Amino acid sequence: MSVLAPERTLTPVVRYPEALAPTPTHYCPGCTHGIAHRLVAEVIDELGLREDTIGVASVGCSVFAYNYFSVDFAQAPHGRAPALATGIKRTSPDKVVFTYQGDGDLASIGAAEILHAAARGENITVIFINNAIYGMTGGQMAPTTLAGQRTTSSPLGRDVKLQGHPLKMSEILAQVDGAAYVARRSLHDVVNIRRAKKAIRKAFEVQQQGLGFALVELLSSCPTNWGMEAQESLDFIRDAMVPFYPLGEFKVPGNGAPAAARGEGGRTKGSR
Amino acid sequence: MARQLLKGNVAFAEAAIRAGCEAYFGYPITPQTEALEHMAKRMPELGRTFVQAESEVAAINMVYGAATAGVRVMTSSSSPGVSLMMEGLSYIAGSRVPMVIVDIMRGGPGLGNIAPAQSDYNQMVKGGPHGDARMIVLAPATVQELIDLTVEAFDLAERYRCIAVVLADGSLGQMMEPAELPPMTEPRRAEDRPAWALTGARGRDAHAITSIYLDPEEEEAYNRELQATYREIERREVRFEEVHLRGSRIAVVAFGTAGRLSLTAIEAARTEGIDVGLLRPVTLFPFPEERLRRLAEEVDAILVVEMNAGQMLGDVRRTTRERVPIHFFGRTGGVVPMPEEVLDAIRDVHAELIREEAVA
User: Fold this and answer.
1) Distance from CA of B72 to the nearest CA of A (A)
2) Are residues B232 and B267 located together in one domain of the fold?
3) Which residues of A143-172 are buried (b: 16+ CB within 10 A; e: fewer)?
């Protein structure tokens, strides 16, 4: 038999993460939740943790996170994910436990739970999606909504004198002695997405090493409720959110005092 | 185990430990704090989990988390603290994970006070958690019964995958009585956790424990399952105590401490020649409906005694369909009725029976 062409095998360079369920999500087009999910799933795969991981979903757009990861999941009442995670981790210390929470969930109704989970140094990993708005309920003001930002419940733009100032949760939590790792990253371009993945990986490794509370805040887009096109919303993260919410590692294991954000900025070469 | 002098709050905490409770999460509140303090000392000694939470809201959600992991878990609190836990209790009921809560009730509403009351009957028995959730509610009248029902609460919660409540008042939490503790049971081994628990998706599909069913039809189907479980509980788990009811013309119906002090009044009334007995519901959900229906045919009058404004009274009226005259005596706000007051109430009911007979 004559061989007309050499036999070739295609080697996939990118695989669908095993920890990500092969399910379409309900997220809006242009939303960065999908990227955040994928990064978390890739990290779980890379660390070989899928069969030992228990996730805790929160209330908000990520309420159905348990459908999108192929790991065990509990679904917490609004804001209470860190309390559930505490109950799970304390009784299953050999498992890896993470929460996935939005800004309304973590910084408003769940402010006490996240602060005290950090204070106790709970050995859990928190993925904190900050898109400066309540997405699930249709675009109301969040504790992280920027000054002047219009939402359905701050229709004239957030007036900090009447509606308060946005909370910088990473900076707040980095002050807490029980927090071992606190970083803020952004999902607005490829370079920042890759940095975000490194931070997520570190936040899981910190838990594996038993070092205490680890949190990664991810600046995220909400084109639907911001009333923007997808690309416009990514530009909004870069141009409006990053200047107010500086990116960086605010606390890393071993440095007791929170360091100032390292000024890595959100701008990457040629991104403007 | 020998009988020893035990304070109610310490007794139920130790009873839970001996029932194999592996984790306790709580927040200080009078008059149940000694339970939390006992757990703070004992649980770490035994290598088990104790966390003082930042609030009752957090405590119940820590319980929720540990329950999803499939361990025996409990919390305890008192009326206003339990109000704060209602959100978590509803999620737990909606997720069908078992847990135990002891409510050492105090005077209310609002901050109220720290004196004994039966102010949470409606809160715990009539749903409490939003949605059509029910909880098994056990009402002890002595420290010994508080111990026994706490142990049983874990078994019931696990048998039906529901919440089991031990509902006692502040006097039971604070009083010391001779009682016997059960022998020690070790917590279940990690490999013996229930099949539904979150233990990591090793060699199986991932589990999700949630109370969300976005499709109303699906939610309704789930509610039907829950209701079927509640009906089974009603069929199988009714418990009550009756004293001197045979041949009595008057029945006092009272639970917990109100039942206990009513018995003192009943014994005194009987020495005066009044035929009176006691029906003390031990399970408030399930309520001893069948027994009450029969009781309405056996006696000429019912006197309901409570340490509230008449919260169980409605259930007595409903189940007996008021086939006999129903009277009520209650003290509220943390005032514990004296047996003499209950005796007077019994005398009044008796006098009315005599008057009616004279008229007839």
Assistant:
1) 10
2) no
3) bbbbeebbbebbeeebeeeebeebbbbbbb
The CB density around residue A10, as the number of other CB atoms within 10 Å, is 5
Domain span including residue B251? 240-359
Interchain pair B53, A116: CB under 8 A: yes
- Show which of B213, B236, B259 is a domain's final residue: B236
With an 8 Å Cβ cutoff, are A91 and B49 in contact?
yes
Residues B227 and B170 in one domain: yes
CATH of residue B282's domain is: 3.40.50.920
* Beta-bridge partners for A217: A128, A184
Q: How many independent structural domains does chain B possess?
A: 2
Measure CB to CB from residue B61 to each of A70, A73, A76 and give the nearest one: A76
Size of interface A-B (CB pairs under 8 A): 138
Tokens 């005694």, residue located: B305
- Both B26 and B149 in one domain: the answer is yes
Residue A173 burial (C-beta neighbours within 10 Å; 0-12, 13-18, 19+): buried
Both B312 and B333 in one domain: the answer is yes
User: Considering the domain A33-251 in this protein, what is its CATH number?
Assistant: 3.40.50.970
Given B23, B88, B202, which is nearest A90 (Cβ)?
A: B23
**Residues of A in Cβ contact (< 8 Å) with B58:** 80, 83, 86, 112-113, 116
CB contact under 8 A, B61 and A67: no
Are B253 and B300 part of one and the same domain? Answer: yes
At A103, list the tokens.
């800004």
Q: What is the DSSP pairing of strand A179-186 with strand A248-251?
A: antiparallel
Considering CB atoms only, which of A54, A89, A116 is closest to B58?
A116
How close does chain B come to A56, measured CA to CA in Å? 9
Of A53, A57, A88, the CB nearest to B69: A88
Do residues B42 and B160 both lie within one domain? yes
Q: Rounded to a whole number, what is the distance in Å from the CA of B259 to chain A's nearest CA?
A: 37
Q: Where are the domains of chain A?
A: 33-251
0.90 cut: is pTM over it? Answer: yes
pLDDT tens for each residue of chain A, 272 residues long: 566 777 788 888 888 999 999 999 999 999 999 999 999 999 999 999 999 999 999 999 999 999 999 999 999 999 999 999 999 999 999 999 999 999 999 999 999 999 999 999 999 999 999 999 999 999 999 999 999 999 999 999 999 999 999 999 999 999 999 999 999 999 999 999 999 999 999 999 999 999 999 999 999 999 999 999 999 999 999 999 999 999 999 999 986 544 444 444 444 443 33
Which residues, listed in sequence order, are joined to residue B176 by a DSSP beta bridge?
A: B7
**Residues B113 and B36 placed together within one structural domain of the fold:** yes
Distance between alpha carbon A217 and the CA centroid of its chain, in Å? 5
**A74 Cα to chain B: minimum distance (Å):** 5
